[in-house]
Amino acid sequence: MINDIKSIISEFVEVDENEIRSESNLRSDIGLSSLDLISVATEIESKFGVTISERKVLSLKTVDDLIKCIG
Q: In degrees rounded to 5, what are phi and psi of residue 43?
């Protein structure tokens, strides 16, 4: 699952998938903007069949937080 998440994230920023770790900060380490983060969440919702509220998305700090939203 983490490889799928890394792949989705790397579609929105110029960061190599291999540099993304579960503890990476979505904003400061990876460089996602709020809009990017919402786009990433939309892709994750589509791929994994989950729903993540906008409020929850904007409160996420790390890749691990994002993974926890999937269950």
A: -65, -40
